[in-house]
Design brief:
The chain is an all-alpha fold. Helices cover 77% and strands 0% of the residues. It has one domain. It starts with 5 loop residues before the first helix and ends with a helix.
């Protein structure tokens, strides 16, 4: 069933992931919204911008994979690693107490599970 709809799944989840480009342009408001606070030092803000750009790139790659099946598997493996990493970093720490962060982490873990099921042929 997943394979039948994988293109649409990748477009939707890729677009959702790509929305983190907003963190590149407005890191302080986005971090405050998601985590309840935002850093004030220059290094943390720069890292937050970079993180937003990297997550956007994962989303763009997922959308690309929807249209180019030969690159789909490696992109999905990359996305699974990134999404599980975020899920563990949020849900495995005190950040899980931040409602929006916990919802985003759970969503990423759900996306990772769907990608793994697709890769496994389920």
């Amino acid at each position: 069933m997943i394979a039948t709809h994988i293109e649409l799944i990748l477009i939707i989840t890729g677009a959702a992931t790509a929305t983190m480009l907003s963190q590149f342009f407005a890191p302080l408001p986005v971090l405050r919204l998601i985590y309840g606070e935002a850093p004030t030092d220059g290094v943390s803000v720069a890292l937050a911008r970079h993180w937003g750009l990297l997550i956007f790139c994962v989303g763009a790659l997922l959308i690309y994979a929807a249209f180019y099946p030969p690159v789909r598997a490696p992109i999905l493996v990359f996305a699974v690693i990134e999404k599980i990493g975020l899920g563990v970093c949020v849900l495995g720490t005190s950040l899980r107490k931040q409602g929006i962060a916990a919802v985003l982490a759970a969503g990423d873990l759900l996306m990772a599970a769907v990608y793994v099921f697709y890769l496994r042929g389920l």
